């Protein structure tokens, strides 16, 4: 029984460590003027690199190209900033985003698996001084339990496609803005 308790404790500690490793905030100006969950932001620029996993069907033109995907990200990011009351104006902090997005295909190239992505976010003041940055390592989308089961079921029967990809983009945007909201003191 004692071994079981020790093993269970080890698992809980290991899960706690992996859960905390998603991003690391680097502050370039101390004390930081950024206030957690209340600072306001505008998108200064976004650099998006679209890569394609194996199995791409070049004949399938239903998927967004890199420019269209970038516009979609900007739209979802601004929507999420607004929903979390973090959207600013020309006197707000500016964010610069460098996003790498890999579209992964299911067999035949007409349906998708979950995408892979990683990004770096930099926050600047009005004088263009870098205040802070953070990076999300290579990740994939993870919805809430029941939604994730439904998405995985669609993926398994080759039904998760170009019409569904905006849901992945929205989730990535929501995650990015949530991470941004935790920046600061």
Describe this structure in words.
- With 185 residues, this protein is α+β, with helices and mostly antiparallel strands.
- Helices cover 36% and strands 25% of the residues.
- The chain has four helices and five strands; from the N terminus they run αββαβββαα.
- Strands 1-5-4-3-2 form a five-stranded mixed beta sheet, covered by helices on one side.
- Strand 2, helix 2 (66-83) and strand 3 (93-103) form a beta-alpha-beta unit.
- The chain starts with a helix and ends with a helix.
- The model is unreliable at 1-21 (pLDDT under 50).
List keywords for this structure.
185 residues, alpha+beta, five-stranded mixed β-sheet, 4 helices, 36% helix
Task: Please describe the topology of this protein.
Elements: H1 2-20, E1 24-27, E2 41-52, H2 66-83, E3 93-103, E4 116-124, E5 130-140, H3 145-156, H4 165-181
Parallel strand pairs: 2-3
Antiparallel strand pairs: 1-5, 3-4, 4-5
Helix pairs in contact: 2-4
């Amino acid at each position: 029984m004692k071994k079981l308790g020790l093993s269970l404790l080890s698992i809980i500690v290991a899960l706690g460590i992996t859960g905390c490793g998603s991003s690391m905030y680097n502050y370039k100006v101390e004390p930081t003027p950024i206030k957690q969950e209340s600072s306001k932001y505008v998108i200064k620029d976004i650099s998006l690199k679209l890569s394609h996993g194996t199995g791409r069907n070049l004949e399938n033109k239903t998927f967004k190209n890199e420019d269209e995907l970038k516009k979609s990200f900007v739209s979802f990011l601004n929507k999420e900033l607004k929903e979390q009351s973090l959207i600013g104006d020309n006197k707000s902090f500016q964010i610069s985003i460098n996003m790498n997005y890999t579209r992964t295909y299911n067999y035949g190239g007409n349906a998708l698996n979950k995408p892979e992505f990683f990004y770096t976010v930099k926050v600047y003041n009005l004088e263009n001084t870098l205040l802070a940055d953070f990076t999300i390592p290579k990740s994939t989308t993870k919805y809430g339990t029941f939604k994730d089961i439904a998405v995985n079921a669609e993926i398994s029967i080759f039904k998760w496609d170009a019409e569904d990809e905006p849901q992945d983009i929205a989730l990535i945007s929501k995650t990015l803005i949530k991470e941004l909201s935790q920046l600061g003191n």
